[in-house]
User: What shape does this take?
Amino acid sequence: MPAGTQGDKASLCNTLLLLAHCTPSNILPKGIRAVATLLKHDEITKTTDTIVTTVMCKLDPILELVYHAADSAQKATMDTMVTADHLYRTGEETRDKLQRNLEVMREDIQMLADCIKNET
Assistant: This one.
């Protein structure tokens, strides 16, 4: 017999003996029913706690994987944002260099055109 069951039976015996010695006979059946109800609720609570503990033990590895996946997704998102920002800045820098070079070329072409015009 499991220890928990043995302890519950001893508790029930002690409570019933106490009821039998200390209560009038007309209240004794109600007291016995109350004790039985309390013991049932106690056993249901213990069973529920056991089930919840078992379920949580099985869910814990899954939750750890979910947390790890969320962290990985967060890191990937941050890396993507940094890369997109870098690409955008690189594009802006390239555009600015092209515009400066075009301006220089335009000025050079204008100077050449002016030189050719003055020589003729």
